[in-house]
């Protein structure tokens, strides 16, 4: 009887799949993206959020977002707090701008609300079409470099230097040396298309670290149990300060826009890319339920802010499940349930050392650089726009600065070369506002 329910609700036969295939696909997707349970708490806590409960928050946000996607679209696409978006939250909003994490959650909340309004009104499509393709590519690749840089920094592979700003760390130390080995292991596993390659690397480094003495303990803390009850989320639940962005609009508008910009194009790119592999696009190459999918993404970000995490977005790792045969929202339901079950392994996730997450960050960064090959290298305007946005993010330690300099660069080149009529009004407005922000020092 239960199988009949799944058949009717998810239209399994119509989509050319069955219960077993969807179950295996869900497990595959979860294995591919489960590293977020370890990496996201580490990044958010670096921004000042209390680490207690962040594993639970991450799992709940992923579960709720993925269920929303499944029920609203019937697509095999999973969601979780986004890589890059969490780095923007922690390192740009909280650390660089020195905004309290509660206020940062308020910024995430309004980002989700605006995203939902734009999605429901259809304005989202117009904005997406108005932004130069080169800038979109530069931003995505820049975020990739930024994430990879954070990974290298966390492991001590790169360290601060008063003369050269950054330099190579002491690779004779166990943490950076083990992280380097983990990076190579992850890349090899990904090349060999091993399911859950990133998670495997994290666990292998954690296991090895348990035998490497550091000071009075070990690189990986020892624990009496790997299984236990999830941590409470009372510290972050409804802790967001939704009035802060309104009361400090001059200082936060660009952060809200940057989050909206990154979230929108990351979501659209992921949805289209994964849907193409699952043969969900129509004859015109469009995704039939793009609107509901974007609504699910926006709603998940609002809920994520309420329970205490950075924006929730669609995960490209969903392609792993699609490759395993996943074709419906039932795949996503399985992923959501896996995130809930993973909560009972919280004690294990707590002992994973920071250096063990470095390969995950590096690999995510490498994969995000993939879109750079879509750039027309014969078009200097596109190359310059993308390159400046790309370089600015890791070098300024700020995603919003990369976006701002990308807009300014593109418009400046188009004006200087007499092609001002080819620039959209939205791009002019954004470049102008960013110039004013710098002149008036509204940061």
Could you explain the architecture of this structure?
- This protein is mainly alpha-helical.
- 65% of the residues lie in helices and 4% in strands.
- The longest helix has 29 residues, at 249-277.
- The radius of gyration is 21 Å and the shape is globular.
- The protein starts with a helix and ends with a helix.
- The mean pLDDT is 87.
Beta content comes to: under 5%
Query: Poorly predicted ranges (pLDDT <50, ≥5 residues)?
Result: none
Radius of gyration: 21 Å
List the strand order in the largest sheet.
1-6
Count helical runs: 20
Helix content: 55-70%
Largest sheet: 2 strands, antiparallel
Q: What's the rounded overall pLDDT mean? A: 87
Q: What is the global morphology? A: globular
Terminal CA distance reads 59 Å
State the order of secondary-structure elements, H for helix, E for strand: HHHHEHHHHEEHHEEHHHEHHHHHHH
What structural class do the secondary elements suggest? mainly alpha
**Overall strand count:** 6
Key terms for this structure?
443 residues; mainly alpha; two-stranded antiparallel sheet; 6 strands
Short description:
With 443 residues, the chain is mostly helical.
Q: Helix and strand layout, with pairings?
A:
Elements: H1 2-10, H2 19-33, H3 36-46, H4 54-73, E1 79-81, H5 85-96, H6 101-121, H7 123-130, H8 133-155, E2 158-161, E3 165-168, H9 174-191, H10 197-209, E4 213-214, E5 217-218, H11 244-247, H12 249-277, H13 290-307, E6 312-314, H14 318-323, H15 329-342, H16 346-350, H17 358-368, H18 380-396, H19 399-416, H20 425-440
Antiparallel strand pairs: 1-6, 2-3, 4-5
């Amino acid at each position: 009887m239960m199988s009949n329910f799944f058949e009717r609700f998810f239209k399994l036969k119509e989509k050319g799949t069955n219960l077993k295939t969807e179950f295996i696909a869900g497990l595959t997707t979860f294995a591919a993206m489960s590293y977020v349970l370890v990496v996201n708490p580490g990044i958010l806590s670096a921004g000042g959020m209390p680490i207690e409960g962040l594993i639970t928050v991450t799992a709940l946000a992923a579960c709720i977002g993925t269920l929303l996607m499944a029920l609203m679209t019937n697509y095999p696409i999973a969601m979780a707090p986004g890589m890059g978006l969490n780095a923007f939250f922690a390192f740009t909003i909280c650390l660089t701008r020195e905004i309290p994490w509660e206020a940062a959650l308020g910024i995430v909340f309004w980002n989700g609300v605006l995203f939902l309004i734009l999605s429901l009104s259809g304005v989202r499509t117009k904005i997406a079409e108005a932004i130069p393709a080169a800038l979109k590519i530069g931003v995505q690749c820049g975020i990739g470099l930024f994430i990879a840089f954070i990974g290298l920094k966390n492991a001590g592979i790169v360290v601060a230097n008063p003369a050269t700003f950054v330099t190579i760390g002491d690779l004779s130390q166990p943490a950076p040396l083990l992280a380097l080995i983990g990076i190579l292991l992850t890349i090899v596993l990904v090349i060999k298309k091993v399911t859950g390659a990133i998670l495997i690397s994290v666990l292998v480094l954690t296991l090895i670290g348990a035998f490497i003495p550091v000071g009075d303990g070990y690189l990986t803390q020892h624990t009496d149990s790997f299984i236990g009850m999830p941590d409470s989320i009372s510290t972050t639940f409804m802790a967001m300060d939704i009035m802060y962005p309104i009361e400090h609009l001059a200082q936060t508008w660009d952060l809200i826009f940057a989050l909206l910009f990154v979230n929108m194009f990351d979501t659209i790119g992921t949805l289209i890319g994964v849907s193409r592999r699952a043969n969900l696009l129509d004859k015109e190459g469009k995704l039939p339920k793009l609107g509901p999918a974007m609504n699910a993404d926006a709603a998940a970000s609002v809920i994520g802010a309420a329970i205490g995490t950075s924006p929730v977005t669609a995960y490209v790792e969903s392609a792993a499940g699609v490759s395993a045969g996943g074709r419906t929202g039932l795949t996503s339901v399985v992923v959501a349930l896996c995130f809930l079950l993973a909560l009972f392994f919280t004690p294990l996730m707590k002992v994973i050392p920071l250096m063990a997450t470095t390969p995950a960050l590096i690999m995510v960064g490498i994969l995000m650089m993939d879109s750079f090959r879509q750039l027309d290298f014969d078009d200097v305007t596109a190359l310059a726009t993308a390159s400046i946005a790309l370089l600015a993010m890791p070098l300024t330690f700020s995603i919003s600065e990369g976006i701002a300099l990308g807009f300014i660069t593109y418009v400046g080149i188009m004006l200087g070369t007499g092609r001002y009529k080819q620039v959209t009004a939205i791009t002019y407005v954004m470049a102008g506002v960013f110039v004013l922000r710098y002149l008036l020092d509204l940061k």
